[in-house]
C-alpha cells in the first residue's frame, strides 16, 4: 500500500471513530450504566400527550418483578417502561409510558387496586440500596397514583362511586342531600370530625388533591413516609392501552428531604410501576435498576479524552505516512 493509501486509511479510521463518538457522545465507552439525558426546552409541557416530549430521547427501561420480599410479585405484568426527560433550566419533567390493557383508577373497595408509577432519587450522597434506600441512605420518591388522578379529573371518588347502591339517610352536621358526598357535604368541621382519617390529617384521606403525585421519603422499604412538603406536580392519561404519566418538579430541592437535582449534571434514578388489575400495591410491583440521568449535559458532545484519541490516531498516521509521502512526491 502506497503512502497516500496509508494516509487515506488513517484519516478514514479517525473519521469513523469521530462519527461513532459524536453519535454516542462517547457514552458507549464512557458509561456502562443505563444512561439517558434530559433535553433542554424553553417551555416544559404540562400534558403527557404534548408533542414537545418528542424533543427528548426515549429510553426503554426494563422492569423486573419485586420478588425479594412479601407480598412479592413473581412475574412482571409490565416488562418495560419508556422514559423521556426535559428541563428548562429551572424545572425537570419526566415522562413514563407503558402498556396496560386496563385503566384501574379506583381503590376504594378491598378488591380494587389502582395503577401507579414512581420515580426514586437519592437524597444522601452515594448510590442507595435500590430497595428504597437503607438506614442512612435517604431516597426521595415521587409516586403517581391513578386514583388520585381520578379524584382530580372527576372529583373525589366517594363511597357511592364504588358502591352505587350505597345509601345513608342521615349523617351528623352534613349539608346537601343523601347519599351526601365528600368533600362538599362535609364542609362543617363538626361533620369532618366523623371522618377520622381526614380530621387526623392523614394525607391519604384528603379528598381534595392538588397533585396526583405523592412525594415520599424513605430509608429502606417499610419506612416510606409522606413528605411534609409536597412539590411534585404531574398528570397521567390512559389512551388505547397505554399510560402516559408526567412528573415535574423544580431542579432545586425545596427542603432537606427532597433530592437536590440543581447543578448535578448526572443523577441516579430508578422507576417502579404497579398494575392495579394484577392486584399490585406497595411491595407488589415491578421496578428498574438505577439509571443515570444527565441534566444540562448535552449528550452528543464528545468528551475531551475522545478527541485526544483521534488526535493521536491522526498524528500517528501522519508520522508513519509522511516520510514515505515526502520520498515519493517529486516524481508524482
Ligand atoms: C427490591 C426493591 C424494593 C422492595 C423490596 C420494596 C418494598 C416495598 C414495600 C415493602 C413497600 C410497602 C411499605 C412501605 O411503604 O415502605 C413499598 C412501598 C413503596 N415502594 Fe417499594 N420496594 C422496592 C423498590 C422500590 C423502587 C425502586 C421504588 C421507586 C422507583 C419504590 C417505590 C415505592 C413506593 C412509592 C411505595 C408506596 C406505595 C404505596 O403507597 O402504594 N420501591 N415498597
The 3D shape can be described as elongated
Beta-strand percentage range: 15-25%
Order of helices and strands: HHEEEEEEEEHHHHEEEEEEEH
Label the structural class: alpha+beta
Q: What count of helical segments does DSSP give?
A: 7
Distance between the termini: 16 Å
Runs with pLDDT <50, length 5+? 26-32
Radius of gyration from the alpha-carbon trace, in angstroms: 27 Å
Helical amount: 10-25%
**What is the mean pLDDT?**
87
Task: Compute the number of structural domains.
Answer: 1
Q: What CATH architecture label applies? A: Sandwich
Q: List bound small molecules.
A: protoporphyrin IX containing FE
Number of strands: 15
Walk me through the structure:
Helix content is 22%, strand content 24%. The model is unreliable at 26-32 (pLDDT under 50). It contains 7 helices and 15 strands. The protein is elongated, with a radius of gyration of 27 Å. Strands 1, 4, 7, 8, 9, 10, 13, 14 and 15 form a 9-stranded mixed sheet that branches. The two termini are 16 Å apart. It is α+β, with helices and mostly antiparallel strands and 332 residues long. It has one domain: Sandwich (Immunoglobulin-like). The longest helix is centred in the C-terminal third of the chain and has 25 residues, at 304-328. A hairpin with a 3-residue loop joins strand 5 and strand 6 (91-99). The chain binds protoporphyrin IX containing FE (HEM). Protoporphyrin IX containing FE is lined by residues 66, 68-69, 118-120, 130-132, 141, 143, 216, 221-224, 270-272, 281-283, 287.
